[in-house]
């Protein structure tokens, strides 16, 4: 049976200072005030435990589209347009029955890094896949799949993947064993879809497309089902239909065979991205168990729409002689996704698991201006796919990074909700772990969105951060403000702090200023507030500091600010030593907490592993006093596992796959002064407690960090 869960409980992770950029903490506490504050917080946590005793782990379906802009959803923008527009009635219905997240952001405005951040629960300052690292392997570490498998979920990935490792060439492998990061090696029990990102550029894997504008866009692609390549069996299979039909088949079989086992489905459509290809025929009548798309399982007739002529059917609503061919095609592709989502929702109702299933719908990045049809260009201008914003795919203006995002969970998410809290893809790992009753891996960057979704509890502010490199320019679209048109992109950053967005493009050096916008009201980012008063002068420096304090350089993707010293904090008063909070339990990884009541707490002069329970976890927090600017090497050894952060930067990951008792090290450039740190330490019965943190640096031989350098 499924374990009970707690919704929306608060984090006890930061007992005496906050590392949250949007909620600065006072660093000065008396000893009595510290313990009193912890007692109040812990009593609140304990009272929240078991608040939903009848609840169980929900099924989770994450639906992810490709290049579908904020403006392509009816409730977000299309319904407010006059003249030429398309419709998404089923997605609009999800919005009416659930919640619209109106300020949900992708981590990078292109597919590979965006998907990597989603799966890894990390923003772009921490993921291994950045910029245009198409098909680069995500590491063997925590993913949405591994975390939910840890909670007893059955996991399925259907659709576009794009993160397997090795090259794009078909000759670079012979079977999935040669892909280092094939989905079934990254937490998914089963996979069906396009493995390479380039294969997702066309949507009929078995058929030639003569009107394609290149050889690659005229030929079929490979679809893999676990260890088998099956495209030869997929004649006339349109991928939106194919991926939906298989998802339905899998869910039906799972509901019949293992109803009490929760499932997680990551359904990643490859549309409406790239080739503007349309289905073979109308969407089948009905939906759900008996109607809609169906998996037939016969070679050459794999699904019930594998008939007729490929790339031929235009939705009747869009057969308008005043519309161009590409406009009709694009609108039909979006409507097909919409129909597929409605089909899935009906299936949940037919199986009587509707109220047990959380559905999340979002998209990877802003809209793109391609059709891949010879002589027929297409741009997002036609339907204002970028919504009321400026920017498209590969821009860090709002149109490139603000995503359509909907969630539906009957009985848990109040119908018709609209929320404007900034959030980002890495928050889904945290949220899904929360509803599954698990502590989040300490390595993750996210916060749980359960309070936002349910309207219960206080939402912890999260981190919204983007970095990306592109050699192009923002398009010269008439809808865009002249200040953005034809503007060079190059190195770009966006960061949210104190309710404002900072954005930099064509960054040459770290001293370059952020433009600062209030995107709650200034949707097109035309009123730059930088330097307009003392508050924004101070915010400018805070944004520059924060952009160094939350990220780590990546050797494959160098930035002009990689060699800067991470700024220290000005702290009014500190006391010697560090603080620790201990939690008893059998944890699958080094955890951070919001749904587990702590068992004990205290202070130490040094960092040691012999505090707290024999089996559980300990969180250490304090300030590290760095004597001078320089590059410092830290090394950590633990008996079971640990994660070490300075500010909010992940410095040492000795957690997933950690070889117990081995040393893990990393180097970081730090400015002189006080730097907040956090260690999340895993303890397991039978292991002798060991937690050693050493450092070396300018004029410092490697040594355990001395007591005179540790404060709280």
Structure in words:
- The protein is α+β, with helices and mostly antiparallel strands.
- It folds into 3 domains: 59-454, 3-Layer(aba) Sandwich (Alkaline Phosphatase, subunit A), CATH 3.40.720.10; 465-549, Arylsulfatase, C-terminal domain (2-Layer Sandwich); 569-711, Toxin - Anthrax Protective Antigen, domain 1 (Alpha-Beta Complex).
- The strands form 7 sheets. The protein has a 10-stranded mixed beta sheet.
- α6 runs parallel beside α7 (325-350).
- The radius of gyration is 25 Å and the shape is globular.
SSE layout and pairings?
Elements: H1 31-48, E1 59-66, H2 89-97, E2 99-101, E3 104-105, H3 111-120, H4 144-149, E4 154-159, E5 190-193, H5 215-218, E6 224-225, E7 228-229, H6 239-257, E8 263-272, E9 295-298, E10 301-303, H7 325-350, E11 357-363, H8 398-401, E12 402-403, E13 406-408, E14 417-419, E15 423-424, H9 427-435, E16 440-441, H10 450-454, E17 465-473, E18 488-497, E19 500-504, E20 515-517, H11 534-549, E21 578-584, E22 591-592, E23 600-604, E24 616-626, E25 630-638, E26 641-646, E27 649-654, E28 663-670, E29 673-683, E30 691-697, E31 700-704, E32 710-711
Parallel strand pairs: 1-8, 1-11, 2-14, 3-15, 4-5, 4-8
Antiparallel strand pairs: 2-13, 3-12, 5-6, 6-7, 9-10, 11-13, 16-22, 17-18, 18-19, 19-20, 21-23, 21-24, 24-29, 24-32, 25-28, 25-30, 26-27, 26-29, 30-31
Helix pairs in contact: 6-7
């Amino acid at each position: 049976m499924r374990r009970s869960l707690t919704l929306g409980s608060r984090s006890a992770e930061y007992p005496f200072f906050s590392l949250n950029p949007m909620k600065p903490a006072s660093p000065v506490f008396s000893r009595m005030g510290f313990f009193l504050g912890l007692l109040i917080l812990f009593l609140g946590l304990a009272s929240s435990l078991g608040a939903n005793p009848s609840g169980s782990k929900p099924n989770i379906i994450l639906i992810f589209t490709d290049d579908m802009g904020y403006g392509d959803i009816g409730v977000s923008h299309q319904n407010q347009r006059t003249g030429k527009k398309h419709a998404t009635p089923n997605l609009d219905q999800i919005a009416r029955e659930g919640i619209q997240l109106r300020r949900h952001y992708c981590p990078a405005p292109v597919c590979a890094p965006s998907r990597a951040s989603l799966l890894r629960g990390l923003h772009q300052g921490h993921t291994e896949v950045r910029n245009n690292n198409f098909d680069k392997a995500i590491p063997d570490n925590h993913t949405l799949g591994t975390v939910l498998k840890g909670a007893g979920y059955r996991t399925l990935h259907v659709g576009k993947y794009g993160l397997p490792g090795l090259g794009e060439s078909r000759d670079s492998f012979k079977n999935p064993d040669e892909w280092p990061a094939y989905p079934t090696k990254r937490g998914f029990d089963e996979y069906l879809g396009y493995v390479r990102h380039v294969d997702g550029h066309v949507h009929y894997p078995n058929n030639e497309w003569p009107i394609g504008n290149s050889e690659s866009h005229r030929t079929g692609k490979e679809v893999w089902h676990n260890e088998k390549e099956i495209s030869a069996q997929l004649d006339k299979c349109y991928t939106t239909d194919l991926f939906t039909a298989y998802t339905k088949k899998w869910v039906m079989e799972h509901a019949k065979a293992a109803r009490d086992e929760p499932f997680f489905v990551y359904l990643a459509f490859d549309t409406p991205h790239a080739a503007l290809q349309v289905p073979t025929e109308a969407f089948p009548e009905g939906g759900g168990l008996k109607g809609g798309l169906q998996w037939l399982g016969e070679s050459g007739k794999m699904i019930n729409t594998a008939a007729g002529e490929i790339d031929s059917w235009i939705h009747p609503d869009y057969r308008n002689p005043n519309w161009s061919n590409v406009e009709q095609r694009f609108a039909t592709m979006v409507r097909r996704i919409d129909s597929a989502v409605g089909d899935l929702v009906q299936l949940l109702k037919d199986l009587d698991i509707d109220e047990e299933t959380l559905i999340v719908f979002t998209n990877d990045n802003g809209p793109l201006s391609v059709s891949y049809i010879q002589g027929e260009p297409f741009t997002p201008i036609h339907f204002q796919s970028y919504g009321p914003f400026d920017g498209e795919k590969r821009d860090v203006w709002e149109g490139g990074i603000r995503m359509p995002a909907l969630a539906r969970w009957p009985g848990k998410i109040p119908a018709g909700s609209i929320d404007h809290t900034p959030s980002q893809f890495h928050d889904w790992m945290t949220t899904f772990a929360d509803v599954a009753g698990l502590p989040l891996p300490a390595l993750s960057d996210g916060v749980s969105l359960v309070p936002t979704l349910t309207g219960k509890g206080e939402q912890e502010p999260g981190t919204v951060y983007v970095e990306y490199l592109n050699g192009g320019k923002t398009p010269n679209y008439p809808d865009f403000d002249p200040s953005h048109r034809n503007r060079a992109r190059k190195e770009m950053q966006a960061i949210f702090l104190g309710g404002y967005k900072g954005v930099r493009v064509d960054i040459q050096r770290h001293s370059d200023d952020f433009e600062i916008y209030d995107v709650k009201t200034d949707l097109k980012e035309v009123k730059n507030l930088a330097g307009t008063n003392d508050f924004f002068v101070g915010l400018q420096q805070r944004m520059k500091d924060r952009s160094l304090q939350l990220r780590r350089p990546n050797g494959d993707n160098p930035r002009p600010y990689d060699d800067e010293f991470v700024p220290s904090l000005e702290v009014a008063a500190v006391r010697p030593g560090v603080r620790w909070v201990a939690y008893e339990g059998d944890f699958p990884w080094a955890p951070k907490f919001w749904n587990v009541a702590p068992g004990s707490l205290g202070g130490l002069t040094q960092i040691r592993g012999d505090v707290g329970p024999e089996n559980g976890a300990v969180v250490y927090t304090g300030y590290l006093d760095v004597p001078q600017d320089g590059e410092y090497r830290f090394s950590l050894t633990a008996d079971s596992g640990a994660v070490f952060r300075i500010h909010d930067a992940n410095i040492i990951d000795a957690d997933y796959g950690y070889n117990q008792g081995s040393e893990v090290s990393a180097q970081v450039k730090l400015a002189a002064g006080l730097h907040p740190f956090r260690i999340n330490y895993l303890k397991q019965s039978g292991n002798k407690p060991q937690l050693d943190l050493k450092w070396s640096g300018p004029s410092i031989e490697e040594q355990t960090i001395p007591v005179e350098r540790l404060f709280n």
